[in-house]
């Protein structure tokens, strides 16, 4: 069993002058930082292979993958401001060895899967496209449950058609409590629908998302489960025991919001440790996940190539973290 953010004109003018000078100094520093990072990228392009491989269902994938949600517009609705850059990010990810892309037809909705198809089709045989079903979007951007048998079947079909593939590497059944929190009910009925689609050859592997240990146990009694996708990062660690239980079972754990999600991680201590080990705080947070457990697959998202390269370089950061640094990070 599982356990585990008026004065006179002369004064205002001086204030604007000082503000302008401050902004100019910040721009100079930002350009300098970008030049340093771009130099690193050009001289030592990061590779997803540095993160190692893990068996995800019926194939091995790089432990550093890519989460495509951020390729949509604000609020995960509509198209991105720069579709050409979005496609360039996808191509760059694959060029650098990423072979696990996490997506969903409700990102946009439909926008992200269209971008993936337009950028990468025909796909490499090594590319694992993983989606999630169980929700739908309203015109104003709300997220509503969509777990009836008809909705689940249609969602799988929509993903297949948009991505132009015959079978999805994995489909995560994404569930939620009424308040949007972790689902605590029975998943037998919706998971049963997905197992039937798996038998039809439309899904190769099954996963569950936003669930607790009891739901994982229930799922394992129904069908083999290849992955669990829950909220987890260096400061949000409610699933520590679950990760440790899944590891000897060979079940991948795929954290969503590995960098904090819609509210990025903020920690003065994390920033200080990152400076000591010559990394960015976000690289360090990803590196910690790679060192936390071998069954963790990390899928950070971004909408620009420079940030993508920075994320992939986290694999090399992970290799140079010694026991003392890891202990500090564990204590955050």
Secondary structure layout plus pairing:
Layout: H1 9-43, E1 53-56, E2 59-62, E3 66-67, H2 83-95, E4 100-102, H3 111-120, E5 128-133, E6 135-137, E7 143-145, H4 149-163, E8 168-174, H5 188-199, E9 203-209, H6 213-222, E10 227-229, H7 240-246, E11 252-253, H8 268-276, H9 281-292, H10 305-312, H11 314-319, H12 323-330
Helix pairs in contact: 2-3, 4-5, 8-9
In the CATH hierarchy, the third-tier topology of the domain at 60-263 and 296-302 is known as TIM Barrel
Q: Mind telling me the CATH class of the domain at 60-263 and 296-302?
A: Alpha Beta
* Low-confidence segments: 3-43
Q: What strand order characterises the main sheet?
A: 3-4-5-8-9-10-11
Report Rg.
21 Å
Describe the biggest sheet?
7 strands, parallel
CATH architecture of the domain at 60-263 and 296-302: Alpha-Beta Barrel
**Helix share of residues?**
40-55%
Spell the H/E element sequence.
Answer: HEEEHEHEEEHEHEHEHEHHHHH
Head-to-tail CA distance between termini = 29 Å
Shape: globular
Structural class label: alpha/beta
Strand fraction equals 5-15%
- Count every helix, treating DSSP H or I runs of 4 or more residues as helices: 12
CATH homologous superfamily identity of the domain at 60-263 and 296-302: NADP-dependent oxidoreductase domain
Number of strands: 11
């Amino acid at each position: 069993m599982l356990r585990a953010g008026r004065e006179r004109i002369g004064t205002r003018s001086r204030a604007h002058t000082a503000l302008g000078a401050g902004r100019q100094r910040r721009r100079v520093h930002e350009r300098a930082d970008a030049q340093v990072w771009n130099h690193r990228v050009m001289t030592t392009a990061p590779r997803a292979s540095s993160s190692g491989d893990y068996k995800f269902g019926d194939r091995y994938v790089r432990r550093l993958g890519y989460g495509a949600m951020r390729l949509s517009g604000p609020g995960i609705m509509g198209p991105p401001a720069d579709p050409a850059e979005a496609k360039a990010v996808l191509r760059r990810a694959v060029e650098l060895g990423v072979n696990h892309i996490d997506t969903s037809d409700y990102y946009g909705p439909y926008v992200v899967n269209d971008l993936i198809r337009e950028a990468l089709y025909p796909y490499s045989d090594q590319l694992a496209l993983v989606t999630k079903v169980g929700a739908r979007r309203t015109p104003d951007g709300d997220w509503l449950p969509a777990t009836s048998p008809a909705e689940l079947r249609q969602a799988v079909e929509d993903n297949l058609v948009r991505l132009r593939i015959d079978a999805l590497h994995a489909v995560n059944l994404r569930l939620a409590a009424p308040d949007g929190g972790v689902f605590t009910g029975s998943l037998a009925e919706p998971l049963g629908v997905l197992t039937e689609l798996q038998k039809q050859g439309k899904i190769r592997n099954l996963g569950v998302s936003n669930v607790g240990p009891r739901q994982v146990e229930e799922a394992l009694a129904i069908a083999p489960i290849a992955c669990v996708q829950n909220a987890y990062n260096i400061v949000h660690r409610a699933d520590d025991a679950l990760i440790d239980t899944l590891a000897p079972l060979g079940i991948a754990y795929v954290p969503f919001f590995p960098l904090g999600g819609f509210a990025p991680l903020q920690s003065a201590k994390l920033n200080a440790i990152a400076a000591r080990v010559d990394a960015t705080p976000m690289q360090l947070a990803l590196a910690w996940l790679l060192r936390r457990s071998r069954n963790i697959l990390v899928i950070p998202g971004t909408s620009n190539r420079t940030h993508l390269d920075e994320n992939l370089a986290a694999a090399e950061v992970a290799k140079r973290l010694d026991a003392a640094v890891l202990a500090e990070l564990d204590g955050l």
